[in-house]
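Please predict the structure of the following assembly.
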Amino acid sequence: MKWLVTTPKGIDVGRLIERLSAFGCTADPDLAPIPLDDNEQVIEVDGPKDLPARASGESQILKVSPNSEMTLY
Amino acid sequence: MPKVNVLIEVPRTQPQAFAAHAAAVGSLVESEKQGQSLVKDLAGYGLDLVADQAPVPLFQEKTVFAEAAAGGFAAFASPETNPDTAADSLVVSCEVDPARLADLSSRKDVRVWPSSELTLLGIEQEEEEFDLADSAGGVDCRPFRPAVTIGTLRRLLGVRAVWRDGFRGQNIVVGIIDEGVDGTVYPVVGGFSRPNARRPGTAPITSHGSMCAADVLVAAPAAKLHDYPFLGVPNSGGALQMFQAVLDQRRRDGTPHLTNNSYGFVGIPPRESFPNHEIHDINHPLHRKIREVVASGAPAFFAAGNCGENCPSGRCLPSGIGPGRSIHGSNSLAEVVTIAAVNSRHERIGYSSQGPGMFEPRKPDLAAYSHFFGNLGPGRPAGGDASSFDNGTSAATPVAAGVAALLMSAIRGLTPAELKEALIAGAIDLGVPGQDDHTGFGVVNAAATYMILKEGRWASGLTRVRAAAWA
């Protein structure tokens, strides 16, 4: 399942992805984090269906949001 | 279905071409005789000759461009009458059954050309009576009414009121966030793509994004485009990346000035199982990013969706069909301009999604025209017969975005909120007075909105006054 993980800016993204890999997550290394306002950023990962629950204790993860498929109208 | 006008080029040598043409112009009988002779092998295609248009000769290029002394057309510049000339082929004006057009076009012994409607530039057209539904509105469902031309849309939109003052969308860049645009046909001057993805401007002419590009240019033919292509199946992460690219570009040079977004969701997952889904979470990163882009001064036009209750698209899931369930996700954000679809008779197209929106209840905001020959159709860039036309709220949205681009080229410095307010004030209201769940505040109209903006009436809070009067 595809997810968008919101983190604080300035963290070591490589290390976070390494920690997420323990939950079964993978990330495209070519995709840079996308900034959200001055304090947060978003990374795209593939991960398990229960990633929000698994990641809830991670201090460097502010939010896990679905990265859902859309349809061209 | 009405027949369509075509020009049929028949390769045939005609020794005294000017004399033969003069005879046909001078006599309807002779014109018809020549025409019938030329198309006698084309029985069975439902052809009707346009008898008052005499067959026209075409000449070999080696004849036309030869030196004057060798009989080339440059000799016509002399004051004396020149010898008659042999034609290489003749062109006959016909009307053809649209169902047979593809077969006719596939023949090797003739060439079939579009005979599209032309407009006299700079001359006021007489007031045209449109075939409009009554003011109570109506619904167009399968089988849909026939598509119309771009010329009809331009008259309905009143774009010439703005064009007459010299504005055609120039110096405005519209960002097309979609599956990509064919930059060999449409004016793509920039954009963004993810690593290893399709580059801006490299999509095929048949792409959904190319349709959006064509439809922006209905009202704003001098606008330019930035192409932000999703590749494959679009998802919110891809859209998030594209909106960030828009924001990056705007930080550098203020473009694109607005965005077109003709995509979204077609069903609603249960809130209890998916509380953070884009449809339920107004602070999903994609929605936050869209608000950032609008806050930077770039209006975002979003399609309402194709899940209206009367004849929803086959892609729609039952959970996402009908009033209150079909406008959701980014297109129900208060900050964006949400566009429903009507046909040229001002009937709501039955698949157009209906409010209330799931975030902002007062959706859609406006309606615009769909079902017309823009990118698709006879003589259009992507081709096809009369059953192929630009459709969906996907087509209506770039028509509205094109009107916005046109107005932004004329009235510089409009904020997204001011633009939306002016478009609402200038809209042609349908059905129940005021905003409604089907067509919002009504159909966008360039002429009326332009007058309101020129006179500065938008600054007087006209929309609020109007909305209050109807409350």
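The interface with chain A takes residues 178-179, 194-196, 208, 233-237, 239-241, 244, 262-266, 274, 276-278, 281, 284-286, 288-289, 292, 303, 305-306, 313, 315, 329, 392-394, 397 of chain B (CB under 8 Å). The CA atoms of residues 63 and 72 of chain B lie 5 Å apart.
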